[in-house]
TrEMBL record:
It comes from Micractinium conductrix. Belongs to the pseudouridine synthase RsuA family. It comes from the Eukaryota. This is 6-phosphofructo-2-kinase fructose-2,6-bisphosphatase-like isoform X2. Transmembrane segments: none annotated.
Amino acid sequence: PRKIWLTRHGESQFNTMGKIGGNSSLSKRGQMYAELLPDILASRVPKTADGQTYPMAVWTSTLQRTIITASGLPYPKVQWKALDEIQAGTCDGMTYEEVAEVMPGEFAERRKDKLRYRYPSGESYMDVIQRLEPVVTEAEREKECVCIVSHQAVLRALYGYFMNQPLESVPRIDIPLHTLMELTPRADGTMAEVRFIVD
Ligand code: F6P
């Protein structure tokens, strides 16, 4: 059967500093993940009934950490702006500690309602869920297998959708780095999941 893979980009420079947002490149560890990903994925691509391997597509965001992570994958690629990480607006480039110190009100608001909280000049999880609609429609229409290389908040939204998770739980779904999530549609419309941890 056809499969959908979800993965975050390899660890970024900003990840190592605990900074949110930005458009940083990969750390050494992140680069390692990017180098291991092609073989892991190749070993998982299913065969069609006539013994051919399934046609594949790779979707990334427009941020360099996903583009670099996908760079070794030998399949056609599409960059989607809709797959870019949640926009943190005026908090972009800060650590959570800095946000708590400089904008304690914002920090508290987000903690209270992470799903609906919108960053000043930025986005909420609800905004992200909404902008992902065309991605989801396209993913469900595709005949090919699709590997989506994106970001923590975006993948929470996509995973929540594909795995039928309650909306309120979406902003806290565990989507670790260096983990390839493989989703396989079942006959009853639900998805089977396997995770490959590459650390
Ligand atoms: O820290 C990595 C990151 O992708 C940030 O760029 C983003 O703001 C954050 O995760 C989203 O996670 P959370 O909604 O838990 O802050």
